[in-house]
């Protein structure tokens, strides 16, 4: 009772104060073979609490807890964190408890946290916070940036006798990052009731020459993990399927670098075991690799901890970042869980190999006992669905504007672009529907299967629109700019109008890729977003390549005066935007067409998987497109600034779809490529 009173007084004091701008700086360096915190500073509302457990001192690692005044953040609070881990150092950055995000004030200013971390050669940073708990009507925004030193093998030194002495390769930096959002104050009846949540995590790898200077400081990230949820962002509150509403946690775990390889191996094993636990038939090659990885474990073989609820997990292994040249790779795990306690147990089991460097495993103090308390809340969870029936999904906006009037030629081009018989390979991919079905997320045991399929495809379509739609718009504009430059280049003049051309001055005429440098940058940035989910990335790349082949034949006949550059390769959204622009289709129509193709392919997959019948599939597609049209009508505009802002905010909005999609390669019997 006394502790509860202290917590209540602290929270009350936090709510009474005015928003603040705080900061924290933490530097960890290796001193005499052990990690020391050489600089610790903070300003309210941020707090850094150095921890010195005896086990960490013996292991040569260091721990620090991140706290805040009142245990949470107010709307308008801003916290900037700067973390530096020196060469060979090992640092665990944790939190005191869950970070609360209190209800926003009338101005709707979000609570903002920004973290910039640098990890030197051979260093290890483990960012293992407790879940973020956003209260009802709260607004939150976070930006995490990690720069990892990427080391190449040094040349051998010349010995006195003139022979070459081989030198050991320098170890690259390593990081294990957990990004975790909870459903909210579940005990108080709040579940996914926040107004806005935005998270963006960027990874960059920097190579360093022998002289100590950085040889790569590219501003564009190598990998991006972005998620945006909430009202107006097509997130969990506005599109939460009934079968998903009971999940208490959504999180992403990234393991990068040689010192995180053991964690990456355990994440891969856990994904296989959880898929089998859900009743899926795991492919033999994954069962064999799991057995081999378990046998290679130095300590005891990995086993799933005792779990009380559902956990869906998808892992993308072997991600190669564009800026990284070291021998290892990046593993990204996505997890959705019914209960927070299960997440603690799973994370503790997967991060256990870090105990050798840190003295103890992260989250070890959060796991109490080996048994579980039986809790029967199935009836409560069944009543958590936001959408009841399809009445909400067929509601039409009274202010819905009509599409741009198209000429006959544009209508013919649009019809052919969205034709189901266009050989672009769309029907070879399920968009995560098959994986969700095999994981039991769309099964009849969880409620109305038709409703679950509807909500899953709608969530996937909204997420794709929010992420890839922005790149399709930008690619459309970049293609117009390149075409305008090419048309005016032959005449020796500059493009007119508001089409941006500063990036294309001095470039040769169309026919190669030079006029499309801006388009190539967009495609590279989209790849950084998609690379963290190999299955989705592969599907986008294959469909983009197929569409590019179609475009090369189609466009030569339709517009021989403005040839497409060759070779043309890219992701589906950027190639789609390029082709639509060259066909003369407006930007708004391009967005509608791209969304239509995605929904059509997903519904077709559901029909072929026997999740819905052919006639119900027609109804399903009509309902989804009707509700999706409200998202498509929120067009950001054609201006250069509006399109650039849309790309900078591009993020997925359905962690469950991403989680299920990433698990597709685990299954033995698959109808679809992805």
Detailed description of the structure:
Keywords: Chaperone. This is Urease accessory protein UreD. Belongs to the UreD family. GO terms for molecular function: nickel cation binding. With 674 residues, this protein is α/β, with parallel strands linked by helices. The chain contains 18 helices and 20 strands. It has helices at 2-16, 54-59, 236-239, 261-277, 284-296, 340-350, 355-358, 378-382, 408-417, 433-438, 449-489, 517-530, 534-558, 572-582, 587-608, 614-632, 640-648, 655-662, and strands spanning 21-31, 34-43, 46-51, 62-68, 72-73, 78-85, 90-95, 99-101, 111-119, 124-128, 132-134, 139-150, 157-158, 164-165, 174-182, 196-207, 223-230, 249-256, 311-319, 330-337. It has an 8-stranded mixed beta sheet, with helices on both faces. Strands 2-1-6-9-12-16-17 form a 7-stranded mixed beta sheet. A 3-stranded parallel beta sheet has the order 5-8-11, with no helix packed on it. The longest helix has 41 residues, at 449-489. The protein is globular and about 75 Å long. The termini are far apart. The model is unreliable at 1-8, 154-168, 210-217, 232-239, 382-402 and 490-512 (pLDDT under 50).
């Amino acid at each position: 009772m006394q502790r509860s009173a202290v917590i209540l007084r602290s929270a009350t004091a936090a709510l009474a104060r005015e928003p603040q701008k705080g900061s924290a700086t933490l530097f960890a360096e290796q001193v005499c073979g052990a990690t020391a915190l050489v600089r610790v500073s903070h300003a309210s509302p941020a707090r850094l609490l150095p921890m010195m457990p005896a086990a960490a001192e013996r292991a040569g690692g260091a721990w620090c807890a991140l706290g805040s005044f009142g245990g949470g953040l107010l709307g308008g609070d801003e916290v900037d964190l700067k973390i530096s881990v020196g060469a060979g150092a090992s640092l665990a950055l944790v939190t005191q408890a869950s970070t609360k995000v209190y209800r926003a004030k009338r101005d709707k200013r979000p609570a903002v946290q920004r973290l910039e971390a640098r990890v030197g050669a051979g260093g290890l940073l483990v960012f293992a916070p407790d879940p973020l708990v956003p209260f009802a009507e709260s607004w939150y925004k976070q930006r995490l940036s990690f720069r990892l030193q990427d080391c190449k093998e040094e040349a051998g030194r010349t010995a006195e006798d003139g022979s070459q002495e081989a030198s050991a390769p320098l170890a690259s930096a390593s990081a294990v990052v957990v990004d975790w959002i909870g459903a909210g104050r579940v005990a108080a009846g709040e579940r996914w009731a926040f107004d806005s949540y935005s998270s963006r995590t960027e990874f960059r790898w920097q190579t360093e020459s022998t002289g100590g200077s950085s040889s790569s400081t590219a501003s564009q990230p190598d990998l991006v993990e972005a998620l945006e949820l909430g009202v107006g962002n097509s997130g969990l509150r506005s599109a939460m399927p009934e079968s998903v509403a009971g999940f208490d946690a959504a999180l992403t775990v990234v393991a990068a670098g040689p010192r995180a390889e053991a964690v990456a191996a355990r994440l891969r094993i856990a994904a296989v075991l959880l898929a089998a636990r859900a009743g899926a038939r795991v492919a033999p090659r994954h069962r064999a690799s799991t057995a081999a990885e378990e046998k290679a474990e130095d300590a005891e073989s990995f086993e799933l901890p005792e779990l009380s609820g559902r956990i869906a997990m998808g892992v993308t292994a072997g991600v190669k970042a564009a800026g990284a040249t070291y021998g290892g790779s990046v593993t990204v795990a996505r997890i959705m869980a019914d209960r927070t306690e299960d997440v603690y147990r799973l994370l503790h089991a997967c991060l256990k190999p870090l105990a050798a460097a840190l003295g103890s495993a992260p989250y070890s103090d959060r796991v109490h006992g080996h048994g579980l308390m039986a809790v029967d809340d199935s009836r409560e969870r069944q009543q958590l669905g936001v959408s009841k029936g399809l009445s909400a999904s067929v509601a039409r906006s009274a202010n819905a504007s009509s599409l741009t009037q198209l000429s006959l030629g544009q209508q013919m081009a649009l019809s052919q672009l969205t034709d189901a018989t266009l050989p672009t390979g769309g029907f070879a991919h399920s968009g995560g529907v098959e994986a969700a079905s095999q994981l039991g997320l769309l099964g009849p045991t969880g409620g109305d299967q038709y409703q679950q399929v509807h909500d899953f495809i709608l969530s996937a379509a909204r997420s794709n629109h929010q992420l890839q739609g922005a790149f399709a718009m930008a690619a459309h504009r970049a293609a117009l700019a390149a075409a305008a430059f090419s048309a005016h280049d032959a005449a020796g003049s500059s493009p007119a109008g508001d089409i941006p051309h500063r990036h294309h001055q001095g470039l040769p005429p169309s026919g190669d890729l030079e006029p499309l440098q801006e388009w190539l940058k967009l495609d590279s940035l989209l790849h950084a977003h998609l690379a963290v989910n190999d299955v989705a990335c592969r599907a986008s790349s294959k469909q983009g390549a197929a569409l590019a082949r179609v475009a090369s034949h189609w466009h030569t006949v339709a517009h021989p005066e403005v040839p497409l550059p060759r070779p043309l390769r890219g992701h589906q959204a950027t190639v789609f935007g390029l082709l639509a622009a060259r066909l003369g289709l407006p930007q708004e129509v391009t967005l509608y067409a791209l969304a239509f193709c995605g929904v059509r392919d997903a519904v077709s997959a559901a029909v072929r998987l026997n999740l819905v019948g052919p006639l119900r599939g027609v109804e399903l597609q009509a309902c989804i497109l009707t509700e999706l049209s409200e998202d498509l009508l929120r067009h950001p505009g054609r201006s250069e600034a509006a399109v650039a802002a849309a790309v900078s905010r591009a993020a997925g909005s359905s962690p469950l779809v991403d989680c299920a999609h990433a698990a597709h390669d685990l299954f033995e019997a698959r109808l679809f490529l992805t």
